[in-house]
Amino acid sequence: WTIGKLPVWSFGLLLLMIPVGLSAVSLLLTKKFGRESLSDCTEISLADGEFLPVYLGYFFVAVGVNEDLTMLVVFVIVFIFTFLSQTQYFNPILLLFGYHYYHITTKNGTKIFVIKKSGVARKASELSIENLRRINDTTFIERR
Hints:
alpha+beta
């Protein structure tokens, strides 16, 4: 099997590299975001596995659709729900780059979503991050 002049396996590899490359570019762009710091947290919870079932559900729905029009309608509906629910900040590919996702409550009671690189943080009282970049009012990413 070939697609154009490419064997199917190389075309599949190319399709797999597109989201990985776009994720790497998005990480480079976060260096331009506003700087923040975080300390004195009251609560922290790891959210790495929280969104994976949702993304796997999207995958299985996509595999089960045979018609182009049906796939387009399903894609648009999933896109709208994902956008409105703010889960678009969870990118499973960032897990491959060594990032972890956290729900954090600050000393003021504000709940924020932090994307942090390095080992898993366990204690809120010991958490201090100096190199945060603001994605929006409630989402931050650690960048050095």
